[in-house]
Amino acid sequence: MNKCNIIPIFVPHLGCPHDCIFCNQRKITSFNDSLDKEQICLTIEKYISYFKNKEIPIEIAFYGGSFTGLNENLMIEYLKIAKKYIDQKLVDSVRLSTRPDYIDEHILDILLSYKVKTIELGIQSLSSKVLDLNERGHDVDCVYKSSNLIKKYKINLGLQMMTGLFGDDFNSCIHTALDIAYINPDFVRVYPTLIIKDTKLEQLYYSKKYIPMDIKDAIRLCKYIDIIFEHYNIDIIRLGLQSSDNISKDKDVVAGPYHPSFREFVQSDIYFDLFEYYIKKFKIKKYLHFECSNEEISKIVGNKKSNINRMKEKFNLDISFSIHNFEKNILIINENLVNRKEFIDYSFMKILRRFDET
Description:
- Helix 4 (105-113) links the parallel strand 3 (93-98) and strand 4 (116-124).
- Helix 9 crosses helix 10 and helix 9 crosses helix 13 (340-354).
- 42% of the residues lie in helices and 19% in strands.
- It has helices at 25-29, 37-50, 72-87, 105-113, 128-133, 140-152, 170-183, 200-206, 215-231, 262-281, 297-301, 306-315, 340-354, and strands spanning 5-10, 58-63, 93-98, 116-124, 156-163, 187-192, 195-196, 235-239, 253-255, 287-293, 318-324, 332-333, 336-337.
- The protein folds into 2 domains: 5-260, TIM Barrel (Alpha-Beta Barrel); 267-354.
- The chain contains 13 helices and 13 strands.
- Strands 1-2-3-4-5-6-8 form a 7-stranded parallel β-sheet. Strands 11-10-12-13 form a 4-stranded mixed β-sheet, covered by helices on one side.
């Protein structure tokens, strides 16, 4: 997706009908109260003053709860504030997050009239069993219906999924990713499930009815999901929950696969597989020299040189590298230009063979 400067406005839980078993929006957003108009205006103007590059579009984003589940008059009040800045040409558009069961034509008519450009739906899973166990309050058909309706209105669609939910497993997560790819959203977010304080999931954890994924399994699963979305050219705009004052292991995260560098770990694991594929394809026996961009070197090398060490151990190679002012995805191994798409397509087919699609 094109780069955009985001002005986040958090409206936590105001529009949600209930708590899903994993959710405590007040903890996740570090925010408890509704915002008044003055607070919203101050926040918008503060962020506008931060953005120096006027060529980059600015978007007001209503995050944290189910925006379209708000009282309609309150929702329109918030949208009017945002539109004021759009009319003044200080802001370009609006985005929001909501639930799939709070989307209909009446709502979309309102949103379109106030320049809403992007809607993110928190769908979490496309397994009926998982939705029920996690008390989501809607079914799978609702996700397809609301997604298709948003696309019909030509509003950008983002879908948020979670991995490792109560009742979830590798197979159902892979199926959810494949089903999301079938919907073909403009982008996705992927969040490994964390156990947050003061949630029903915390109670299930302490009663030993729920065991969270360990970080190695979460990385491996998200690697497969990342490959699926890359195969379908669907952008993952976030992988792993963002660190905040509360979201860390010594604060409100009780357990689960949390790490502030989670996405880099996933991408690093993909790079190891990519190198393994091309070491075999190029029949590299003794020396390996690769050239890459500065942006990608840390992911390729791995945390504490983990990828380099694994490759040395597995293939008995002498490894060296050089960094260039390349575009992000340019990679050269032993003077051979690497075709990343070839590797992604190969890996995608391996995933399909591994996980039964029935």
